[in-house]
Amino acid sequence: MFRDRFDAGRQLAERLRDLAGQPAIVLALPRGGVLVGYEIARALRLPLDVILTRKIGAPFNPEYAIGVVAENGFVSVNQEELALGVANEEYIRRVVPKLMAELERRRQLYREGRPLPDLTGKTAILVDDGVATGFTMLGAIAAVREQHPERIIVALPVAPPSTAERLRREVDRLEVLILPEPLDGVGAWYEDFHQASDEEVLELLRRAREMLAELNGRMPETEAS
């Protein structure tokens, strides 16, 4: 088990040490993923930003993912779930605009309305605090791919083997610390899995920006010495 998301981030950073100093950016899925991503960005001295996705929850259980939307307009629905009658097209048409509105709210909150950063020629490191079905991460991958990064890496503390294999086929590199079967929920692998707040996310993004600015400010002096 991990003590908390920060502990998981530090452990993932060890797996990603080869990326220190490379043209890369950590893109975390809010809210919990930002806590993990902060430690990776801090250890590797990389910029930290968010990638915004939302799962499409089933009508009977919002936590049960039947699809995903991403901030660039990407929408994917599990057609097998529709065929089984878990939801219908009318439900999808009704819920997707609400999810998109929430993504826009978060974009204004976390990025002051800015679009995704330019990823051309960079390695995008996508981070969350864990995945079950992987739908939200697949949405993040699709959104990031449209920004034409050099490579896409997914880094996760915990994921079931079947989901990890599905994600592996979509990216250039996958790092997962724990691959339990059954998963029994992402939170089961943390001693502290508190509900991260917007305020906590904003504070970590602010700290990451200040850290990077400080590092960049010291670089000329270091080279001169």
From TrEMBL:
- Which superkingdom, per the lineage? Bacteria
- Gene Ontology molecular function, alphabetical: glycosyltransferase activity
Give UniProt keywords alphabetically. Glycosyltransferase, Transferase
Coiled-coil blocks? none
Which InterPro entries does the entry mention?
PRTase-like, PRTase_dom
CDD domains with a match to the protein in the record: PRTases_typeI (cd06223)
Instruction: Supply the Gene3D superfamilies for this chain.
Output: 3.40.50.2020, PRTase-like
**Domain Phosphoribosyltransferase intervals:** 8-173
**What's the name of the protein?**
Phosphoribosyltransferase
